[in-house]
Amino acid sequence: MENGEGFLADTEPQRTELGSIHGEGDWQKIAGILRKSIGADAFQRWFGGASWGGTENGKGTVVVPGEIHQVWIETNYLPELLFAAGEAQEGIHHINIAVAESAVTPGRQPVLSEPQVRKQLPGDMLDKRAKAAGLNHDYTFANFVVGSNSQFAHAACEAVSAKKSVGYNPLFIHGGPGLGKTHLMHAVGREILRRRPDCRVIYLTCEKFTNEFIEAIRKGDIEKFRRRYRSSDVLLIDDVQFLAGKERSQEEFFHTFNTLLDGRNQVVITSDRPACEIKSIEPRLISRFECGLAVELQPPQLETRMAILKKKILEWKVTVDDSVIEFLAENIRSNVRRLEGALVRVATFASLAGESVSVQKVEYLLRDFIQEEASRQVTIDGIQRAVAETFDVRMADMISRRRPASIAFPRQIAMYLSRSMTHNSLVEIGESFGGRDHGTVIHACKKVTAEIGKQPGLRERIERIENHLRR
Ligand code: ADP
Ligand code: MG
Questions:
Q1: Domain check: are 77 and 20 in the same one?
Q2: Ligand 2 mean position, distance from CA 332 (Å)
Q3: Which residues make beta-bridge pairs with 55?
């Protein structure tokens, strides 16, 4: 995606009349054609904030609000855009995508300084450097299947790797387990090394950071520890939620983080939840996490799950029936790691048995995966919402410490359902209801069970909520 001389250099947003296409009206014409060819959703997402910059010598300029739009459009929509512009106005043979000047924070420098044009690393050197940086060979952009669940996160990662990352610092990637956070983070590291071999890239988990920090204190060589991390050009810190409750490590991380950001070095962070939801972490650290760009990975849609499975099958050179792929994609929804795990199990069985596997067999082989999947999809949060809606109380009441009778019983029902429908412990359930203890949850479960025997219609009401949640 390197653009040679770069799009920005020769495409200052130009709003004067440069050619016969100018102004809103003409952009509307192009936009109309484009919307039809790429679909309304994609159009809205990527071109909703775009405007026409003008034409000069057959070159048209589209001005977009951010670099992420620029990267994404250049990678995915240039042919369609060129076609649409050509339809609206004869003689356009080239399109530039420029970022609106207002999108660049004044005074900010590019995060990584561009060395004079350098050769890219040969493959085996890149592998060595990547390994030394702690990067996994298999986690590349090429191996990552992009779906609507991940396209924004993916585009942000590409933008950071391509150094078009002014202002995306830190890049904060969050999302549930097994959705590709670590994969994308490694891909960023590898791509940066490929483009700028002399960059000092370090990947590590937050757990490792904490352990090394404690070890450094124990050995009395904290200076060395600090030098190592504070002198990196790109620091990739995985699973930052691990810092919760570890005050000294938080303090150390805060200073490392500030040193890197002040030096305009790139920091990428992943977390299993949004920054503001990480418990027991200092507010100043959270606000630091929030000062860059936060992107979310969501569970993939059915088509994306199928595409991921097909890609893995090619990578692993195994043969699996299409009906089995469909079965896996339909039944394992919430986590790509588990999807992969299921495929490994099926493929291993097939190769050991020396035969292709039927859907019935797969159903049997994966019964534990499928069962767990069914119970995993229900979350405490989902239960609280559903109960709040059914009993017409506010979601905030579910987690508040107030105890008027009108909210107490719906809250107890939500606790009861959390106990029966999720794998969360009593303590975790209590925590999610405004920090109550596990005894309160046990009491709620007993109370609801007793009331189901007494109150007419209550059982049906609760069953309706259960069915709604399972759907
Ligand atoms: P997380 O860090 O979010 O828990 P990982 O990045 O470890 O998840 O991903 C789990 C597994 O699923 C990895 O093997 C990864 O390669 C794979 N994976 C996740 N998302 C994708 C995707 N979109 N395309 C291909 N593989 C994926
Ligand atoms: Mg991970």
A1: yes
A2: 18
A3: 60
Ligand nearest to the CA of 146: 1
Residue 403, domain CATH = 1.10.1750.10
**Alpha helices, DSSP H, located in 391-422:** 395-399, 405-421
Tell me which of 141, 157, 158, 183 to substitute to probe ligand 1's pocket, judged by most ligand atoms within 8 Å of the beta carbon: 183
Same domain, 399 and 363: no
Q: For 202-253, how does the pLDDT look when each residue is reduced to its tens digit (9 = 90+)?
A: 999 999 999 999 999 999 999 999 999 999 999 999 999 999 989 999 999 9
Ligand 2 centre from 397 Cα, in Å? Answer: 33
The confidence score (pLDDT) of residue 432 equals: 92
Tokens for 151, please give them: 């396209």
Using most ligand atoms within 8 A of CB, pick from 145, 303, 313, 336 the residue to mutate for ligand 1: 336
178: Cβ below 6 Å to ligand 1? yes
The pair of structure tokens assigned to 376 is: 């995993």
Please state the φ and ψ torsions of residue 271, each to the nearest 5 degrees: -155, 150
What is the reported pTM? Answer: 0.65
- In this structure, are 241 and 365 located in the same domain? no
Residue 27 belongs to domain spanning: 2-117
Residues 407 and 370 in one domain: no
Last residue of a domain, one of 344, 376, 408: 376
Beta strands at 266-271 and 171-175: parallel, antiparallel or unpaired: parallel
CA 215 / ligand 1 centre spacing (Å): 30
